[in-house]
Write a sequence for this structure.
């Protein structure tokens, strides 16, 4: 954690030297802080503040969450390193922290999920609402998202209440992890570790996607997916193997090797 934060500060200082007009936001967002969780709490409060809820109140909520649950910082670090490793548009660690709404939306969701676990459901719903309004990402605070999650572009992401996402998953924009109707109870998908979900894919119902599988862009998945395969189509069907051992890390979405 210390080495990563040191690198972030070095990158921030380089940005200020190269672009002095960004000195204010870079200092406020990064250089004024001594730890990653402090910078994340600041960003959470800055982005989600509104006429209904002040930045100060939201900062107090975020600070409490990070103090009470150290795994939030550890998970944020894994999410950050996932973006750095998998997103070809990410050339520095400060980019997700300052500019990428996918990373920032996930970290805000994680505070909302912490609130949900504390029994503060109405405040968690408020956080969900603001994430949707600010980032265009709608994640129910009860959903369970594992560490090492990377959501690229992150426009129009929808993740339902009983969805579960494993570790080291990558997904692109316009993905839905939803239900198939108005039924109650456990009604959303369960995504295994290391899964790659292509842009526009819809995974619907209480179904399981096996670890290290690929969901091709635009697919509609309505039934269980075995591990280590590629599925494509409407409705989706198995079209081959996953193509590699870690599809979420390679981010290769071509079907010619399926």
């Amino acid at each position: 954690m210390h080495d990563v934060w040191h690198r972030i500060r070095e990158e921030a200082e380089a940005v200020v030297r190269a672009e002095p007009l960004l000195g204010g936001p870079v200092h406020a967002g990064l250089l004024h802080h001594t730890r990653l969780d402090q910078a994340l709490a600041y960003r959470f409060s800055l982005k989600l503040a509104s006429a209904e809820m002040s930045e100060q109140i939201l900062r107090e909520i975020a600070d409490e969450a990070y103090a009470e649950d150290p795994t939030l910082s550890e998970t944020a670090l894994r999410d950050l390193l996932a973006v750095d490793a998998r997103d070809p548009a990410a050339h520095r660690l400060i980019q997700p922290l300052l500019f990428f709404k996918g990373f920032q939306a996930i970290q805000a969701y994680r505070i909302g999920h912490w609130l949900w676990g504390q029994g503060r459901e109405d405040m968690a719903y408020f956080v969900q609402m603001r994430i949707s309004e600010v980032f265009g990402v709608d994640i129910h605070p009860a959903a369970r998202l594992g560490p090492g999650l990377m959501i690229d572009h992150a426009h129009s992401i929808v993740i339902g209440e009983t969805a579960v996402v494993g570790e080291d998953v990558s997904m692109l924009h316009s993905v839905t992890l939803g239900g198939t109707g108005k039924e109650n109870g456990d009604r959303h998908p369960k995504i295994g570790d290391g899964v790659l979900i292509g842009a526009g894919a819809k995974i619907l119902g209480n179904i399981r996607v096996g670890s290290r599988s690929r969901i091709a862009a635009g697919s509609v998945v309505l039934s269980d997916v075995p591990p280590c395969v590629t599925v494509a189509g409407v409705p989706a069907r198995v079209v081959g193997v996953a193509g590699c051992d870690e599809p979420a890390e390679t981010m290769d979405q071509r079907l010619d090797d399926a």
